[in-house]
Backbone:
């Protein structure tokens, strides 16, 4: 229910927390979590053709959406990734091609604009670089049709953990879509996040996760580290991040 949209770090301080849609889903995700991938594929700073104005109006089935460049997501992607896609390469075709270059990834990290559709959660999307063949919006519905072979997917964008509740299904949206696509764990946000604090939190999270620290613990420790910095002590800087799927 509504607890799925509550910040776990504030509800359960000092505890390692992971949300799962159901007991059945937990069993399936736990089996997937036994697989181990290598390397981090990171995407950031998509090219929205911003030009001098600093923003671009992108038109799609969603209507007209104003997207400003997110320059901080480029350094964020480079800080955590082994293979990095930025600017023109940070597109849906670029992501699909890169996913196929390894049998399984340790993590797939996507840093961009997130757009939530509360009415039609399968149209919630990640705004990537548009190409002649697509509008750049990777929707939850499209993710359902993908195969994402990775131990973890991180959706480093605003409100990627916000979905719509359905009886028997739980929260439907981007987090659920990436679990259906094959990821046993998905790290998402519950509200609009700060660029600098997010970059620091993700760097610290991956430092631990790469060393084998369980994802839920790595997230808690990264959040505690950000909270300890006086300029980021307020929960709005660190408490938005929650983990869906297998916590170990």
Residues:
């Amino acid at each position: 229910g509504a607890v799925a949209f509550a910040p776990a770090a504030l509800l359960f301080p000092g505890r390692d927390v992971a949300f799962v849609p159901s007991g059945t889903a937990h069993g399936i995700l736990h089996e997937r979590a036994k697989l181990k991938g290598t390397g981090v594929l990171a995407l950031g700073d998509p090219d929205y053709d911003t030009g001098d104005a600093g923003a671009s109006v992108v038109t799609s089935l969603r209507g007209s959406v104003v997207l400003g460049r997110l320059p901080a997501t480029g350094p964020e992607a480079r800080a955590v990734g082994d293979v990095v896609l930025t600017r023109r390469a940070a597109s849906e075709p670029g992501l699909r091609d890169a996913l196929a270059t390894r049998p399984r990834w340790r993590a797939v990290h996507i840093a961009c604009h997130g757009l939530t559709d509360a009415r039609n959660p399968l149209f919630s999307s990640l705004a990537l670089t548009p190409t002649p063949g697509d509008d750049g919006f990777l929707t939850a519905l499209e993710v359902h049709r993908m195969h994402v072979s990775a131990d973890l997917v991180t959706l480093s964008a605003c409100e990627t953990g916000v979905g719509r509740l359905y009886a028997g299904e739980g929260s439907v949206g981007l987090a659920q879509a990436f679990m259906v696509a094959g990821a046993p764990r998905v790290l998402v946000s519950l509200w609009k996040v700060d660029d600098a604090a997010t970059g620091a939190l993700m760097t610290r999270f991956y430092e631990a996760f790469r060393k084998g620290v369980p994802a839920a613990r790595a997230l808690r420790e990264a959040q505690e580290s950000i909270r300890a910095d006086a300029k980021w002590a307020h929960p709005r800087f660190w408490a938005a991040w929650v983990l869906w799927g297998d916590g170990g």
Summary: Residues 46 and 225 are 28 Å apart (CA to CA).
